[in-house]
Prior knowledge:
Elements lengths: L1 E4 L5 H9 L6 H18 L1 H11 L11 E2 L1 H10 L2 H19 L6 E4 L5 E8 L2 E5 L8 H14 L3 E5 L9 H10 L3 E3 L3 H10 L9 E3 L4 H10 L4 E2 L7 E6 L5 H12 L6 E6 L2 H15 L5 H11 E5 L3 H11 L3 E5 L3 H4 L8 E4 L5 H6 L25 E8 L2 H17 L3 H8 L5
Parallel strand pairs: 1-12, 5-6, 5-8, 6-7, 8-9, 10-11, 10-13, 11-12, 13-14
Antiparallel strand pairs: 2-7, 3-4, 4-15
Helix pairs in contact: 2-3, 2-8, 2-9, 4-7, 5-6, 6-7, 8-9, 10-11, 10-12, 16-17
Amino acid sequence: MIFTNSKSSSFKADFDELLKRGKMDIESVSVIVGNIISEIRDEKNDALKRHIVKFDNWTPKSDEDLKISVEAMEKAYNNIDNKLKDSLHLAYERIKSYHEKQKPKSWFDTEENGTILGQKATAVDSAGLYIPGGKAAYPSSLLMNVIPAQVAGVKNIVICTPTPQNEPNELLLAACHLCGVSEVYKVGGASAIAAMAYGTQTIPKVDVITGPGNIFVATAKKMVFGEVNIDMIAGPSEIGILADDSANPSHMAIDMLSQAEHDEMASSILITPSQKLADEVKIELETWLKKLPRQEIARESIEKRGAIIVTSDMQEAVALMNEIAPEHLEVATTSPFELLPSIKHAGAIFLGHNTPEAIGDYIAGPNHTLPTGGTAKFYSPLGVENFMKKSSIIYFSQKAINEIGSECALIANTEGLTAHEESVRVRLKS
Length: 430
């Protein structure tokens, strides 16, 4: 772990390493992923089934084996504990309520001369959602991807998730039933991204692909962008924490570990002007690590990609955190809302001592599919707009085109586009 002071001689080198935390070596897997995509595009289901044998260690006997039945999803839902069922329903309602406020609206503006300008917001026809599997399955990720697509009005929702040994995660299936989805396929990795981008005999081509995944999934999404739209290129999970001496060191330590337990590549970064807090959090990290079932994963993450930085004041702490632009940012200070105007870059911002990052992962309402690796400087969280597009609306009356048509024709003439110019001039009337 990097444990440093912003005034130390090694600080710049240490901080530069933190800024590189999310850099994925996409080039190292691009040939492999490119071949997978080509095979799916050319051979469709034949390649898909071959990849499942290789990567998920089971053999589909038919094309129908690729799909999870609606009955299996309903059975999984009926089998889960009632308290868990109630919790999932609460999460669904809160996530839906939040995202309904995001939905862009169509609008029209009429000028006095009869010109009508506007915007028409329309859902895409189909969306492909990738839900990770393998080491762990995340029903919460299903909710976070399905619900904004449904709120947007997407009619055809396709889900792909890996099922090693042909064993779908029962809780994931239960969440599928809760959301009312019917097209779920047992396909993972770059193969799933290619199948949704190009279509196979079983899996339909979609318009937009969203959802997190490993480096192979991220690389595949990058490669098929243009054939379909995508949400973002997401890397390992991360948390940044801004804290002052009012923060509880035990809380700060377990919050850092809430990301470290995801995987060894996750990053957990605490920045504080309090040396006392920094020293105490370092001790608390070890105390908590000994209690975690995923201790080995969390320890490697903290040791290799964790950091505690002590600054001269909170202003410097905020400036450094803006450079990091973390996926999740906790502000554990006496007056967190006072710092909010100066925070420019973060995927999601958690304010106050009672708002751990985990509350946003599951039940708060905002989306937990967030930009990582500093991309919060230009990406936003997954939302309803990822599943919609906008069309411009333009209407000119005779009076309107008479008023500004000659200026339009002049610009066209200047660009040497005669047909453009004449298409306007023929409509002008004196």
